[in-house]
């Protein structure tokens, strides 16, 4: 396996971090990634105390390896952070808004702190606040996207700004070639989500996974304010579907004037009725017009060809990266 300073910082064997895809990542998938040498990452940013504690117990029962918990700073996270620190979570991953108010608390609690940013200025502020690892999220990313800069120009700029702090590349990476490219740009690791939507352990509806496998590099769309019920003002990238097409045909109207607004399209045993434009990941317990829900995916979706166990995906990523590095080192320059 490839070893970098990220591996040393996190005590992991491979510089691959699972993206904390809300509504899709459970302890089963996160533990599988950790057990395969990477870092599993649990999205617990809306969970109540009981759910947080239960999820951490499940995680501890399935892995002894390091893992992270992701906390979205768009919502209050003080209590969840306290629970995580009390439970000895080794890595805290912050997202969206400035985490400065909680960074020192996390570090004092013994956690390594990561933060996802979309520009170099935010990366510099995060490092100045004490963040240990920066995740550079490119515009190609699936799900909620913090910035508007693509990975290729973003990664080296952030690497230059943060000095010795490890940088993790996020966005557009779904195979070992992308992993190698990120390392060549100065990143110390990669953050991968879309590829793991085709893992056996992912907790999404079969229709969602089927759409992932049939998509190509042109199948996604970036929207500043579309699937926003439950999380407004949060730009995101999703697969094109009937909801997107109707919205685009109507001229991309603002919330309040969108086609089919407030229409119930799906029901869930856990979440009840779900309306069109809700920021709701299609899960296996949902019944209804699944296709019309937001199917979060990055532009790397065209590289996702088959469903595999997470451990096999990890093995393949590392193998492809090693092959790509070997190919590069065999090149000669005149």
Attribute tags:
alpha/beta, 334 residues, globular, eight-stranded parallel sheet, 14 strands
Write structural notes for this entry:
The chain is of the alpha/beta class and 334 residues long. The protein is built from 11 helices and 14 strands. The protein has helices at residues 5-10, 27-35, 49-62, 78-86, 100-108, 120-128, 151-162, 176-184, 206-213, 242-249, 310-329, and strands at residues 16-18, 40-43, 67-72, 91-95, 112-117, 133-137, 143-144, 167-170, 189-192, 220-223, 236-239, 264-268, 272-275, 286-288. The strands form 3 sheets. It has an 8-stranded parallel beta sheet with strand order 1-9-8-6-5-4-3-2. A 3-stranded antiparallel beta sheet has the order 7-11-10, with no helix packed on it. Strand 3 (67-72), helix 4 and strand 4 form a beta-alpha-beta unit. Helix 2 packs parallel to helix 3 and helix 8 crosses helix 11. The longest helix is centred in the C-terminal third of the chain and has 20 residues, at 310-329.
Write the topology of this structure:
Elements: H1 5-10, E1 16-18, H2 27-35, E2 40-43, H3 49-62, E3 67-72, H4 78-86, E4 91-95, H5 100-108, E5 112-117, H6 120-128, E6 133-137, E7 143-144, H7 151-162, E8 167-170, H8 176-184, E9 189-192, H9 206-213, E10 220-223, E11 236-239, H10 242-249, E12 264-268, E13 272-275, E14 286-288, H11 310-329
Parallel strand pairs: 1-9, 2-3, 3-4, 4-5, 5-6, 6-8, 8-9
Antiparallel strand pairs: 7-11, 10-11, 12-13, 12-14
Helix pairs in contact: 2-3, 3-4, 6-7, 8-11
